[in-house]
Amino acid sequence: MVVPRNSLRGFLSQAKAALRTALDSNEKITFVIGNESADLDSMTCSVLYAYLRSMAPPCNAFSQLYVPVTNIPSSGIQLRPEFLALFRHANIEPSHLITLDDLPDLSVIQSKLRPENTKWILVDHNSLQGKLGKVYASRVGGVIDHHEDEGNVPTDTGDEPRRIEKCGSCTSLVTEYCRQAWDSLSTSATSSGATAGQGGDLSSDDAVTTIWDAQAAQLGLASILIDTANLQSKGKTTEHDTQAAEYLEAKINSCPKLSSSFDRSSFYSEIDSARRDIGGLKLQDILRKDYKQWDQGDQILGVSAVVKAIDFMQEKARDEADTQSLDGAYLEALQRFSMERDLDLYAVMTTSTSSAGDFQRELLVWAFNEEAVSAAKKFADNAREELGLEDWHGSVGKTEAHDDNKQWLKVWWQRQVQHSRKRVAPLLREAMKCKSHSGGWAT
Ligand SMILES: [Mn+2]
Question: Would residue 278 count as lying in a domain?
Answer without folding.
Answer: no
